[in-house]
Amino acid sequence: MEHVHLLDHPLLQHKLSILRDENTSVKDFREIVSEVATLMCYEATRDLPLKEVEVQTPVAKAVTHQISGKKLAIVPILRAGLGMVDGILTLIPGAKVGHIGLFRDPETLEPVKYYCKMPTDIAQRDVIVLDPMLATGGSASAAITFLKEYGVTHIKLMNILAAPEGVARVRADHPDVEIYIAAMDEKLNDHGYIVPGLGDAGDRIFGTK
Ligand code: PRP
Ligand code: URA
After folding, report:
1. Contact call for residues 125 and 119 (beta carbons, < 8 A)
2. SS3 for 182?
3. What atom in ligand 1 is closest to the CA of residue 109?
């Protein structure tokens, strides 16, 4: 599907299999979410622009390349998106981090915003929105709308697991956004959970259930 990048590297598939397993401990789950975020970040930043620079090696002058263009920010959707932050910062330590707190109303499945703190120069940055789960897509779509209201013009969305419904929702609401996922599951159940999925990502990262 256009603008949807399914990242199916064998390392990602292996780690995702462990995340899905209900017997995986909170400690392992949290560590693997972070590792998955690092691997996904490697792919999602493949199109970063480069500029030529000249450096002096111990042997000779070399024309090499370094990243140029707009600076990056990452925006985790609380809570579960927090689990992906360190994994991204491993590769992009200079990225600034904005936070947006959304929870899904269990009855309506609509996102409810309860927190927001963005870097002051967020409008000048390229942004990657982080959330392990893209279910109905309501949370991701609301977070992206919010960033656009702040003046952000270039947004990527990174989810570990997606349901077709969530991808369709974000594609319809925000056709300009590139979506990076490690797996597309079958469907949502009556409670809006991804099937087969991995359960409640926030609870499994933080051990709250
Ligand atoms: C989960 C998940 C997403 C959202 C996805 O968060 O981390 O943010 O649901 O569902 P959607 O695509 O249907 O909006 P949840 O509301 O459980 O909050 P939490 O991260 O604080 O546990
Ligand atoms: N949020 C989760 O954490 N898991 C799902 O399956 C759906 C929404």
Report:
1. yes
2. strand
3. 13
